[in-house]
Transcriptional regulator, LacI family
Amino acid sequence: MRQRQSNVVALLAPNLANPAMSTIAASTEEALRRVGHVMVLCDTHDRADLQDEYLAAMAAQLVRSVIFLGAVASPALRAASEAGEVFLFVNRRNPHDERAPFVGIDNRGAGAAVAAHFLANGHAPLAVIHSDHSSSAVRDRTYGFIDVLTKAGIAPEMLMRLSAPGDDHLDIGYQAAAAIVAAPQRPRAVLCTSDLIAYGAHRLLTEAGLAVPDDVVLVGIDGNPINPWLAPWLSSVVIPYEDYGPVIVDSLERIWAGEDPGERLLPYAFG
């Protein structure tokens, strides 16, 4: 502590109830432990005030680094970023400076892959369900999807963009899917920007008497390992969350060495 440095690394997660977040956290903890570091895990619940509270608390504890596993815009993060403090951002880019070190996937490419899949299978009309959160992941997945459809000549009226307020992806999917049921021309296929959104949408659709995928095709982005067991109806873009830990630690070690790790994009697969 006399050197104002410890072997403790903080990971600030937005929602540990999300299997994707807990998988990344477990992978990161294991990778840090292998290089002699201890991880402190905090759940910000996607709240800017809690994120800032944890950021201040971790600074007081002299943690060596802070990893943001889904950052939101907040006054303290903005001030720290403008002051030149270096953090590592995972899944979502720094909302105040998207050039900051990042580990994740090509979210725009993932959305585009789903659009290409829908076009190849002749699905129309189409829809996308996303949270109203202005994160880079939501934005890029949605825009990547729409961009491919636009270039393919899909008219705007043939694409429904659906969302619902709140941070609970299950509830967002459930509430937004009501518009699918009520639509005069029901979408044949729907991109859900997370698997949890797809789970919520599936429940509403089945309650309305619709079969998935026979009546409506749902595709998520995450590739939750429980899908084959509990959601065999769901196709998903599979993200290797269990492999994030070593990449995160390698990026941290580059930061500690005074280097800029830049962005580290992991592969994804449509499954």
The chain has a mean pLDDT of 94. The longest helix spans residues 19-34.
